[in-house]
From TrEMBL:
Residues 7-402 form the Major facilitator superfamily (MFS) profile domain. This is MFS family transporter. The keyword Transmembrane applies. Keywords: Cell membrane, Membrane, Transmembrane, Transmembrane helix. InterPro entries: MFS (IPR011701), MFS_dom (IPR020846), MFS_Efflux_Transporters (IPR050189), MFS_trans_sf (IPR036259). One of its GO terms (cellular component) is plasma membrane. It comes from the Bacteria. It holds the Pfam family MFS_1. The chain crosses the membrane at residues 7-30, 36-56, 68-90, 96-119, 159-181, 215-236, 248-269, 281-300, 306-330, 342-365, 377-397. Its main location: membrane. GO terms for molecular function: transmembrane transporter activity.
Length: 422
């Protein structure tokens, strides 16, 4: 039992550091603008390229994961990100910095789905939904590292020291991954997926045509993008320039986001495991709540009070744990030997949506004169298109998945009424 937690813990550490690498530009956006002499549009493209690579690498990373296993993929990802952050720490060249962030995106793509694949291999099936949630939300502690100690180091010691320290943590994650992580318990080795090009192509087509995997894709798309776009790039500029918060207050908001994700993730994990036929209802509720909270904040004619901004952060932060339900959907119908590919497909949903939001917001901010209250209010409205598409996708593929499973789910009101009669 102890070895289970050591393996999972080493994977979690690697994921925490990957999230730190991913979110450093979210808190260093202003400093990056000054260091590389770039405006909002270029800055957003800077991060968008990273997200493009991350999202675009999900399927290839999943295929490689099915072939080579979690240990190798996590270690390679950690090393790639450490090297990229080292380059970013010393360069003042914009092309080199962009290349470094692209490498960060690629290494990041290897990490999460590889850590997530360890869970069903090392834990009992009844624990998998909860431990999967804990994997996702505990990894977000990397955002705390970027919001507090990384930001403090960036302010006090400067850009090279801050990014150099992040690179050093990446090296540590690489060493721990090789030393501690094993793909599966002894005697329960994971069977590698076929390596031939035709076999791989057939495997990818099968995953793409799987209704549960598609349901997971749209689930991830509709729940995760809002908090990711907020924490990855536009949250801190929005809170400081449009809403009038100080950088330290904005950092506290990002920290609040992680606390909420951890607390709500445990609840979502338990509910997902206990009520598998109500998962889509949870997903649609999370999406609707996020849309409502953004509508309330964006409808105000001026800056929102701090308590309302905190409420916004609390609600959209539940989207992180909500997106993990997408992986629970994929496990319903996808074979174990293709699980890495399926997890890559699901994980790409939220990041493709994030990519569209990041780039669209950068273009709108540029067109409307920069980081102003009105420009941000218009820019955040692009989210509603994603919610609409994702909601339709969830409803369509929920019906098809239930049909393939051969199950009929009674309306919730009937179930509640029967429970009350008991």
């Amino acid at each position: 039992m102890k070895r289970v937690w050591w393996v999972w813990g080493a994977g979690i550490f690697a994921y925490v550091i990957a999230v730190l690498h991913r979110t450093t530009f979210g808190v260093a956006g202003i400093e990056a603008s000054e260091r590389f002499a770039i405006g909002p549009g270029v800055l957003s493209s800077f991060v968008v390229l990273q997200v493009v690579v991350y999202a675009g690498m999900q399927i290839p990373a999943g295929v490689l994961l099915d072939r080579f296993g979690s240990r190798t993929m996590i270690a390679i990802g950690a090393l790639m990100m450490a090297i990229a952050q080292t380059v970013l720490a010393v360069t003042e060249s914009l092309p080199l910095a962009i290349a470094a962030r692209i490498v960060v995106g690629a290494g990041d793509a290897f990490t999460f789905i590889s850590v997530l694949r360890l869970v069903p291999q090392w834990f009992a099936p009844r624990r998998v939904p909860l431990v999967s949630q804990l994997t996702g939300i505990t990894g977000q502690l990397g955002q705390v590292l970027s919001a507090i100690p990384f930001t403090a180091l960036l302010t006090s010691a400067g850009w090279p020291t801050a990014f150099g320290a992040a690179a050093a943590l990446g090296v540590l994650a690489f060493v721990l991954s090789l030393a501690v992580i094993r793909d599966s318990p002894p005697g329960n080795e994971v069977v590698a997926a076929p390596a031939g090009v035709r076999d791989v192509a057939r495997q990818v087509r099968a995953v793409f045509s799987n209704h549960a995997a598609r349901l997971g894709f749209f689930t991830h798309m509709g729940t995760q993008f809002s908090i990711t776009a907020f924490s990855l790039l536009w949250g801190v500029p929005y809170l400081t320039t449009a809403q009038g918060l100080t950088p330290s207050q904005a950092g506290l908001m990002l920290t609040l986001s992680v606390v909420v994700a951890i607390a709500s993730g445990a609840v979502v994990g338990v509910l997902s495991g206990r009520y598998p036929m109500r998962r889509s209802l949870m997903v649609l509720t999370v999406m609707a709540a996020s849309a409502v909270m953004w509508t309330i904040v964006l409808a105000l004619p001026g800056p929102a009070p701090a308590w309302l901004l905190a409420a916004l952060v609390v609600v959209i932060s539940v989207g992180g744990p909500g997106s993990m339900i997408g992986f629970d959907f994929a496990r319903m119908l996808v074979p174990t030997t293709s699980m890495g590919t399926a997890q890559g497909l699901v994980n790409s949903g939220g990041f493709f949506a994030t990519l569209l939001v990041l780039q669209s917001m950068g273009m709108i901010l540029d067109a409307m004169g920069g980081y102003t209250f009105e420009a941000f209010r218009v820019a955040w409205c692009v989210q509603y298109v994603i919610w609409a598409v994702a909601a339709v996708g969830v409803l369509v593929f929920r019906r098809r998945t239930r049909r393939e499973l051969g199950v009929t789910v009674r309306p919730l009101r009937h179930a509640v009424r029967e429970r009350r009669r008991r």
